[in-house]
Amino acid sequence: MEPEALNWSADTCTVGLAAEVVCERWTLLILREVFQGIRRFDQLTIRTEIPRQVLTERLARLIDDGLLRREPYQEPGQRRRFEYRLTTKGLDLYPVLVALGRWGDKYLADESGPAVEFVHRDCGAHVDLVLRCTEGHELVESRAVGGRPGPGARRRTA
């Protein structure tokens, strides 16, 4: 018996479309740093070790995709430069980075623990992600979640 999902096209799948925007190593590292307050080009090169040309290209793409915006700044005696700020669209990716970090904490951190902890700014407690359906049921196991064709689904043609 074949899975029902084979009857539907994945061409407009939003997971795939989102992956085209953010699922590239350098892009995720840039977003990680900007979320941590590293916003200037030279600071980003230090923290990420991304080659300058690659960083320039990735920042331009993140701006074009609407995840970052450029804000001018000028240090005394220096030329005008830009720092990179998250847009609302970019800020909405924070749970994705937290989820990746939590997965990495569980499976990839060394014995001493993770290098970065996500905490609530007000109380200092660790942040955790919770899956909950619109009826309010907390989904503890991944197997409790299923997929089904949504309103934008299209039947697959042979």
What's the arrangement of strands in the largest beta sheet? 1-2
Net shape = globular
Stretches where pLDDT is under 50 for at least 5 consecutive residues are: none
User: Structural class given helices, strands, pairing?
Assistant: alpha+beta
> What is the rounded distance between the termini?
18 Å
Order of SSEs? HHHHEEHHEE
The number of E-state strands comes to 4
Residues in β-strands, percent = 5-15%
Percent helix = 25-40%
For the biggest sheet, the summary is: 2 strands, antiparallel
Query: What is the mean pLDDT?
Result: 92
Describe the structure.
It is a single chain. Helix content is 37%, strand content 10%. The chain is built from six helices and four strands. The protein has helices at residues 14-22, 25-35, 41-48, 52-64, 88-91, 94-107, and strands spanning 68-73, 81-86, 131-132, 138-139. A two-stranded antiparallel sheet has the order 1-2. The chain has a two-stranded antiparallel sheet with strand order 3-4. A hairpin with a 5-residue loop joins strand 3 and strand 4 (138-139). The longest helix is centred in the middle third of the chain and has 14 residues, at 94-107. It is globular and about 70 Å long. The two termini are 18 Å apart. The mean pLDDT is 92.
List keywords for this structure.
globular; two-stranded antiparallel ribbon; 158 residues; alpha+beta
